[in-house]
Design brief:
- The chain is mostly helical.
- The chain has one domain (41-94, 106-203).
- 81% of the residues lie in helices and 0% in strands.
- It has eight helices and no strands.
- The chain has helices at residues 4-19, 23-35, 37-68, 70-92, 108-116, 119-131, 139-166, 173-203.
């Protein structure tokens, strides 16, 4: 039987990993500022569902590969970081206007794919599955996945609300351009940091 302490630990872990700044959160803030909360929700939903399915995959099927073959993580981390850099470049070079053009709104599928190509998501899944797996029962891991889904969705939605509020001060093309460049630059910087961490861990 799971204790209250274990449930609290699962919740704290999920919140810490979900609410902390990362590639997905930066895209959400940028989208919330440029397109509003409602139009960002499909991306939030895609990112949440994508991460949850990744956690299920890692927790139930992929842990031996992740722990036994670090080169797999390295290659996936490099590919994911390249995709994140591409998203960052698109944000940084986007038109400096609050636009409602459908083509520029991050989609459900982009949110889904970004999680599967996000090194931070893989690290969170691998560490979380390792911490909250019980060899005697699957119930512990299933409970952790359920908690993570709820906490992740609430956390990512909160970032979308933040972006929506930021839009109130983006009342000129210069401010919007600066904001987009800042968000894109931070996204690219985070991807480069993830690459550095992946290469450092592999070299060690």
């Amino acid at each position: 039987m799971m204790t209250l302490t274990l449930l609290v630990a699962m919740t704290v872990f999920s919140l810490t990993m979900s609410i902390s700044p990362g590639p997905v959160n930066m895209v959400i803030v940028s989208s919330g500022a440029n397109h509003g909360f409602r139009r960002t929700l499909p991306f939030v939903s895609g990112a949440t569902i994508g991460f949850t399915l990744l956690l299920i995959f890692v927790g139930f099927a992929f842990m031996q590969v992740v722990t036994g073959y670090p080169r797999v993580m390295l290659l996936m981390g490099l590919a994911g970081s390249a995709f994140i850099i591409y998203i960052g470049w698109r944000i940084a070079s986007s038109s400096p206007s609050i636009t409602l053009e459908k083509d520029n709104v991050p989609t459900f599928m982009q949110g889904f794919l970004l999680q599967w190509l996000n090194p931070k998501a893989w690290i969170a899944c691998a560490s979380g599955a390792a911490l909250f797996s019980d060899p005697d029962t699957k119930a512990t891991l299933i409970t952790f996945i359920t908690i993570y889904f709820l906490v992740c969705y609430a956390s990512l939605a909160a970032w979308a609300v933040l972006g929506d509020r930021v839009a109130l001060v983006l009342n000129s093309r210069e401010r919007i351009r600066a904001f987009n460049m800042l968000m894109g630059g931070l996204l690219i910087a985070s991807a480069c940091y993830l690459v550095y961490g992946q290469l450092g861990a592999y070299a060690a």
